[in-house]
Amino acid sequence: MDEKTSDLRDLFVETTGSGTVTERQAESRGTLTDRDDAVIDERVRELVAAMRERYDFSTDLDDATYARIARGRFEKDDDEAVATALDEKREADGDDERSEAGAGSEAAPVVDPATVRDARFDLHLVREADREVDDDAFDYADLKRLTAEGRSIVECADALDADPDAVAKYARVARVDLTSTRANDRFRDEFRDLLTDADIEGSHAETARNDGLEEATKDMETDTNL
């Protein structure tokens, strides 16, 4: 309950001697609604399929696994945690399949953090940590600009006075960022909007606060004779 709503509640209680508005406010928290996970999962898979059709994916993982990696990008701290969660899921599914198929069935293959990272890049889901150059050897923005100009790894390394291997590592990140930009970041942004509450916590939360305040005010005007 925000300060203004609290003040309105106090005024109501002082005027009527009733605390019923508190209960009604607790039931009406604005316009936020529960999100349908099934619908979200379906849309995530549709995005993965659309990207697979448009771009060359670098792993042989299926769309369902790519969808789980997309979700893991926003739920886990790093690729190692995503890989662990993914393999726990695959192992559990494998146990169920083996119990049905009988002894001798093989377990699901392990997905390592490097594969998760490859798949994540396929989906344009770069983490900020991916752009943090080790030891500040050079500025990522400079490398991104050079990469956009079509410079080779060797040319970028010369221009940045940096080790070519380090440049190659971050040039890959830059290419993903540039590819995402050329698509107006539509895939990255839709994954984020689907798999986080960023949109709800922003403007929607403000709408909810306003709706809740309007409901409280309406209750006061209806239930009291001031």
Please supply descriptive tags for the structure shown above.
single chain; 226 residues; mainly alpha; 11 helices; globular; disordered C terminus; Conditioned medium-induced protein 4
Q: Helical segment tally?
A: 11
Oligomer: single chain
| Fraction of helical residues | 55-70%
Largest sheet: none
Written description of the protein model:
This is Conditioned medium-induced protein 4. With 226 residues, this protein is mostly helical. Among the domains are: 38-123; 125-182, no CATH class. 70% of the residues lie in helices and 0% in strands. The chain is built from eleven helices and no strands. The longest helix has 26 residues, at 198-223. The relative contact order is 0.15.
Question: How do the helices and strands line up, and which of them pair or pack?
Answer:
Layout: H1 3-16, H2 20-27, H3 37-54, H4 63-75, H5 79-101, H6 113-122, H7 140-148, H8 153-160, H9 164-182, H10 186-195, H11 198-223
Biased composition (Basic and acidic residues): 1-12, 24-34
Region (Disordered): 1-34, 86-113, 200-226
Protein name: Conditioned medium-induced protein 4
